[in-house]
Amino acid sequence: MWEVALDVIVTLIAIRAVWKFLQGVTQGMSGGKNDPRPSSGPGAPPQGVHMERDPVCGTFVVPDRELSLRVGQQHLYFCSAACRDKYRAKTA
Predict the structure, then answer these.
(1) Could you read off the pLDDT of 20-66 as tens digits, one per residue?
(2) Residue 9 domain-assigned?
(3) Which residues form the domain of 2?
(4) Domain for residue 5, yes or no?
(5) C-beta of residue 39 within 8 angstroms of C-beta of residue 33
(6) pTM given for the model
(7) How far, in whole angstroms, is CA 25 from its chain's centroid?
(8) CA-CA distance, 83 to 24, in Å (whole number)?
(9) How far apart are CA 51 and CA 59, in angstroms?
(10) Is residue 38 a part of any domain in this protein?
């Protein structure tokens, strides 16, 4: 009795392993377009986007989502209003 149950369990595990392998092969052949997992979290910038360094704390920020300050010809990017205010106070 136990041998039959064990054989059924092992067979099901083997079928699932083969199924997952075949899904991986078909996904790889299609270029991964059918991958349901997100490539990055919500609100994350797309891969390969240029980032600027905050001159106060050194944090990298995406130019689309930062606070900026123009000083002459230079454009400075800040991660927060606090960093921007610290920079203004330091240069004033």
Answers:
(1) 999 988 888 877 665 555 555 566 656 677 888 888 998 888 877 66
(2) yes
(3) 1-33
(4) yes
(5) no
(6) 0.46
(7) 24
(8) 46
(9) 10
(10) no
